Amino acid sequence: MPSDDAKVRLDLNNPVFQEQLLMLQKPERHAALDTLNKIRQLTWNQLYRDPGLKWEKITSIKPPKGMDSLYSLRISRARRATAHRDGDFIRLLTIAPDHDAAYGKT
């Protein structure tokens, strides 16, 4: 059973996430990398409570098969990423082009 006191482990292997991260303009890409570096130093409890990351459950989109829930978090000032928790791993899925897109709204 995963512990909320465990350090967050990053999974950046999703090809959609990788492409979207690498396509960001340099300042935003650097901000996203700074955020990822911050996340990997946190415990799950700290991530859940961090006011800058704003970890939120997405209820407007049905999670893909095999995932309990989808979440969004702020990855830069202008963008949110979607992710899900898998044990101690945060599996990053996408970087939304704007805030509403993270929640399935256009």
H/E element string? EHHHEEEE
Residues in β-strands, percent: 15-25%
Query: On the 0-100 scale, what is the average pLDDT?
Result: 91
Main sheet specs: 5 strands, mixed
Architecture in CATH?
2-Layer Sandwich
- The backbone outline, from C-alpha atoms, is globular
- Return the structural class: alpha+beta
Total strand count, please?
Answer: 5
Q: Could you tell me how far the N terminus lies from the C terminus, measured between alpha carbons in angstroms?
A: 37 Å
Low confidence ranges? none
What is the CATH first-level class name? Alpha Beta
- Give me the Rg, rounded: 13 Å
Please, how many helices? 3
Helix fraction bin: 25-40%
User: Can you say what the CATH homologous superfamily is?
Assistant: RelE-like
CATH fold descriptor? YaeB-like fold
Count of spatially separate domains: 1
Main sheet: which strands, in order across? Answer: 1-5-4-3-2
Characterize the structure shown.
- 22% of the residues are buried.
- The termini are far apart.
- Strands 1-5-4-3-2 form a five-stranded mixed β-sheet.
- The protein has helices at residues 15-23, 26-39, 44-49; strands spanning 9-11, 56-58, 70-74, 80-86, 89-95.
- With 106 residues, it is of the alpha+beta class.
- The longest helix has 14 residues, at 26-39.
- It has a single domain (9-97), classed as YaeB-like fold (2-Layer Sandwich), CATH 3.30.2310.
